Amino acid sequence: MLTSELSSCKRSATALSVSTLLAITLSACTTVETQSFRVNTSSTVESSQIAANADFSLYNRLHAVDMGIFFPEGTQTPPEDVQKIRDIFRSAFLGELGDYVIVAEPGPGAMTVQATLIDFRNAGNESLMSVRSELRDMAAPGKILFMMEMRDSVSDAVLARAADSAKTPTIATADGTETDWTSVEDAAQHWASLFRAFLDENFGR
User: Fold this and answer.
1) Which end of the chain is more exposed for a tag (fewer CB within 10 A), N or C?
2) Is residue 194 scored above 60 in pLDDT?
3) Does the pLDDT value for residue 60 go beyond 60?
4) Is residue 46 part of a domain?
5) pTM for the full model?
6) What is the DSSP string of 141-197?
7) Would the pLDDT of 134 be above 60?
8) Region 31-40: what's the mean pLDDT?
9) Does a structural domain hold residue 77?
C-alpha cells in the first residue's frame, strides 16, 4: 500500500473469502500471543494497542507489505473494483508518506507495515471466534474494518496494531450495491492521515 509493492496482492486479485482471511491472514484461535500490550486510550481510532516493549526510536524506515482486501463469500465484488480500491489506498498513503523512507526488503531499522481492509458485513459471531483472540476485540459483525499492524521486520514481533471503522466505504455486493468511489477515496485519505499522524508522533522517537 505504501509503495508499488502494494499495488496488487501477491495472491489473486480476486477478492478472498472471510474463511480464507481467518485461516491465512489472521490465523486460527490456537495461535498464542506471548507479548503484552497496552491499550492506547487517547488514540483517534476505535482500537489501538501498543506492545509494552515497543521502542519506535529503533526505526528509521518503513518496510511495505502488500495490502490485503478480504470480503465474505457471496459478496461478488468485481476483481476490477478490488484492484481499483488497492490503487486508491496506495495513492492516498503515498501522498501522506512522501517524506518517509520506504523500503522493499526487511532489515535492521525497518518497521514492517501491513494494512488490511476486512469486510465483516455478512460475517457472524462464529466467524469472529476463529480470529486470533488479540484481534477479536477489533472486529465486529456488520462492519468494514481497516486494520494496520506494525512489526519489527527482522524478528516479526508486533509493535502496534490499530483498527477503525469510522469511515466505511460503500463497496459492491451481491445484492446489487455498486461501489461508491467517493466514499472509498474519503476512507483511504482518512486512514492515511491517521497513520501519518501516528508516525509523526512515534516513529524514530
Assistant:
1) C
2) yes
3) yes
4) yes
5) 0.72
6) TT-EEEEEEEEETTT--EEEEEEE-SS------TTSPPP-HHHHHHHHHHHHHHHHH
7) no
8) 60
9) yes
Q: What's the domain range around 64?
A: 4-200
In the three-class reduction of DSSP (H, G, I as helix; E, B as strand; rest coil), residue 136 is classed as helix
Lowest average pLDDT, out of 93-97, 124-128, 147-151, goes to 124-128
Compute the radius of gyration of the chain from its Cα atoms: 16
Q: What is the mean pLDDT of the chain?
A: 74
Asked whether residue 205 is domain-assigned, the answer is: no
In a domain, 108, yes or no: yes
Say how many domains are in the chain: 1
**CATH number of the domain encompassing residue 15:** 3.30.160
| Helices 181-202 and 79-96, packing angle to 10 deg | 40
List the beta bridge partners of residue 118: 70, 145
What is the predicted pLDDT for the residue at 62?
95
> 110 in helix, strand or coil?
strand
